[in-house]
Amino acid sequence: MRKIALILSSICLAISAQAKDYAISTPNSSLIITAKEGKPLYFRYYGSRAEIKDIYSAGRMLKYNAYPAFGTNCNMPYASLVKQHNGDNAVKFVVEKVEQNENNGLSKLTVSLRDVAHPSLLVKVNYSAYSDCDIIKMNTEYINEGKKPVVLQKYMSSVLPIQSDNCVLLQLEGCHGNECNERVAPLTEGVHTISTQCGSRPALYQNASFMLGLDGRIDETNCPVVAGTLLWMGNFHFEFHNTHIAGAPTLFMGGINPAASDYTLASKKSLTTPEMVFTYTNNGKGEATRTLHRWARKHQLIDGTKEREILLNSWEGVHFDISETSMTDMCRDIAKLGGELFVVDDGWFGPKYPRNNGKTSLGDWGVSPQKLPNGIQPLIDLAHSNGIKFGIWIEPEMVNSKSELYEKHPDWVLRHPDFEPTYGRGGTQLLLDLTNPKVQDFVFGVVDDLLTKYPDIYYLKWDNNMCMQNAYSQYLPTELQSNLSVDFTLALEKILKRIRAKYPKVVIQLCSSGGGRLNYGYMPYFQEMWTSDQTDAFHRIYIQWGALNFYPANMLGAHVGSAFSKYTQRFIPIKFRFDVASMCRLGMEMVPAKLNDGEREYAKRAFAEYKTIRPLVQQGDLYRLVSPHEGTKNYASLMYVNEAKDKAVLFAYRLFTWRRANHIIIRAQGLKENAMYRIREVAPEYANKPAKINGKVISGRVLMQEGIVLPELLATQNSTEPLSDVRGVNDYRSIVLELTEVK
Ligand code: DGJ
Q: For burial by CB atoms within 10 Å, which of 225, 361, 553, 598 has the most?
């Protein structure tokens, strides 16, 4: 029966000669376009779910070219610019046909647009809507049916006209060690862009995600919001037009960055542009975040609903100083603390040139006999005998000029043959040319060899520490050099698909000097991403706060570093460090042997406690309660609530002692008003001295409307038995509370 229904629903509808409105809907949102054969395609509406006639009656129907091209209305922004072989770059797209189908909970509208002047150019504009969450996707497909190549000079994935001239934009920006800063500002008149040309590390400075508050504000719970994110592992480009000439709407366009990226599309070839994912809500940015997270966990992130392990990563503890003794000690110690996975980071490889710093050995993925004379297997066995799993670091897309790989294949790197390349880390690092099929085999082989030789490797950390600084392929012909950035990204995708086809289960963390690759496009291949090299817990609150706007907690690695942060020169006590890391996927990044007795006891307890709240953190719905950016407050707070709303965990952090605060009142969200919740402090500083609120039973209504006061966040630390050697830590007070419905 179900089979028949599916078959029936995927029958395509041919277009009529009359203008017709087409709508696709999610449970709470609708998108409407109007199509008529031989006419431009019009975008009409994206907003809360509604009947077409109501949208007309309310005057909410826009009429805006849904995929404007250069050459027809040149005073307007354009999403498409295509140059024919003879130089003609004017295009007029008109509707040829509309196909509408429904498959596995996804309703899809595909509109074929043909260029009137050059009919061999076809662009398919795709819109799809999910039936189980409020997500709509858009992308395009360029098809060259002609005999000669054409050059795509602008080929956006999506155009979204928005009926508001008073938008507030939330975006993420930053740099290494300071990724994902949340910035909120009105979209003033003119054109605002967010884009990157870092190539292999597209999220290093800007993130391909945004939220727009449509009524002159963007708040957590109560305003219309459109949020969007691009699924692309390469250079991206967003334009926000707020101009009078563009007509009424604010116009968003997003897709591949066309800068220095003219794409030659050979005869009979096609290019599918990356998908742009949108959500619309009238319930503020909190709801937008939750929808994106749910969609990511269910539809985009590999193993999105599987729990992630607590790990120890060797990097900040020993850096390149990998030895059998140091690794053995760390592995045993994390097992004793209750960790579940030990990861050997950079510095284990280089059979000819041992990797002692960033200057050598990338490309030579054999074990360094100087570092690990007995190889990796004894470490894997040790991990297993201690009841934990084993992982190892690689950076397979890179090479150092001092390496056996570079000696053999100097032509495998991106660089212009006629001048010295720009080197990356260590003054010797270069990016391999992934467009070269031999290089693709090599990169696949790095993973394949390791996992074949050591089938018990459970986890790989895949790092990438260089942008595409030398944008020249020694493999591509000269006339196709401007295809590099797109072809490189597609080649990476091909390699990752090949790896996943053979190794669907191995857990792979994506890292790019921290969060340089934080993008939804990587999610089908990497279970998690390293959020930032910044492990100073105070700074991390801001980074995680920013990242969590778009990315779910279970994919954001957050590690407890040592008390002293080498980045910020700050000392932070252990409880605060644990409480910050526990808001995402918890791990550790230090030498556990350096913990004093009190800290060790605390770490053991905190790891055990994290396991009890893990399902909430890693699968719950996120509610932001107090933003660290809120100037008038001196604390930050968020919570995760399970689907049944009978369990939640609330995190609160005091940020500054110097800001006045007599009461810290925190109002919960997402609970059941009429339910009663028992409060339990998770991992209190001292096991026998929980917070005053511990054990109290409070109604959902009071928790949400009146809020709770947490004097512990105000108290100064006068303890005679501090957990760490750190003094003067009164800024860094925090509390974690578990809420369980009393039934
Ligand atoms: C950069 C990463 O962000 C670090 O965590 C570490 O893996 C180093 N690379 C190793 O070189």
A: 361
Assess if residue 582 is contained within a domain. Answer: yes
* Segment 2-16 mean pLDDT: 43
- DSSP letter string over 187-253? --SEEEEEE---TT-TTSSEEEEEEEESSS---SSSS-EEEEEE--SS-EEEEEEE-STT-SSEEEE
**Candidate of 464, 509, 517, 533 to mutate for ligand 1, largest count of ligand atoms within 8 Å of Cβ:** 533
Contacts with 502 (C-beta within 8 Å, 6 or more apart), sequence order: 448
CATH number of the structural domain spanning residue 283:
2.70.98.60
Mutating to test ligand 1, I would choose from 201, 459, 461, 465 the residue with most ligand atoms within 8 A of its C-beta, which is 465
Cβ–ligand 1 contact at 589 (below 6 Å): no
Specify whether 625 is located in the same domain as 607.
no
Question: What residue owns the CA closest to ligand 1's atom 6?
Answer: 315
**Residue 687 burial (10 A CB sphere; 0-12, 13-18, 19+):** exposed
By percentage, how much of the chain surpasses pLDDT 90?
A: 88
Look at residue 720 and tell me whether its pLDDT is greater than 80. no
137 found inside a domain: yes
pLDDT, tens digit, 9 for 90 and up, residues 164-176? 989 999 999 999 9
Answer whether 463 contacts ligand 1 (Cβ < 6 A).
Answer: yes
Domain end (from 618, 640, 672): 618
Same domain for 404 and 326, yes or no, is yes
Residues 627 and 609 in one domain: no
* pLDDT(245) > 80: no
Nearest CA to ligand 1 atom 9: 513
Q: Ligand 1: distance of its center to the CA of 400 in Å? A: 15
Domain membership of residue 186 as a residue range = 66-300
